[in-house]
Amino acid sequence: MRNRLLLGLWRFMVPLPRPIWQGEVSRGAQGSEARLGFMSPEHHLVRDFTVRELPRVGEPLSPQRIAQGVGLPVDRVVSILDELEQNMTFLFRSEQGAVTWAYPVTVEQTPHRVTFSTGEQVYAA
Fold it and tell me: Most-buried pick from 1, 48, 56, 91 (CB within 10 A)?
């Protein structure tokens, strides 16, 4: 089953021919680089922290909590969160400014529940 891609259609899983999905992956990688080019190492640090911490704490993450976790000033974290949200890349914040959703996880209830090997549970975005 390695190196196969299956497409789910209703109750069926249909294998996609390798040339089709490899071409899409190649094109997607090139597009992702251009779309994510604005991200600095600090952007990745903030984004990775939110994805890792949301399942662990199970509640929205304030900019202050994120700043403390990544070792950046709060105003820099707020700026990074603004940019990540404006570029529609990875996260969404509540009206209070706390991160509630960082792809692929969210603390908001969705129909999709995920349990990690560590036992942490969270909703999937």
Answer: 91
Residue 25, token pair as written in the block = 């992956």
The percentage of the chain sitting over the pLDDT mark of 70, rounded to a whole number, equals 75
Is the pLDDT higher at 11 or at 34? 11
Q: Are residues 84 and 29 in the same domain?
A: no
Structure-block tokens of residue 71: 């070792």
Cis peptide before 55 (omega within 30 of 0): no
Name the helix (H) or strand (E) containing 115: strand 113-115
Q: Are strands 99-102 and 105-106 parallel, antiparallel or unpaired?
A: antiparallel
Q: Total structural domains in the chain?
A: 2
Higher pLDDT, 91 or 118: 91
| Short-list 46, 52, 62, 69, CA closest to 96 | 62
Instruction: Answer yes or no: do 74 and 119 share one domain.
Output: yes
pTM value is: 0.69
Residue 86 belongs to domain spanning: 41-124
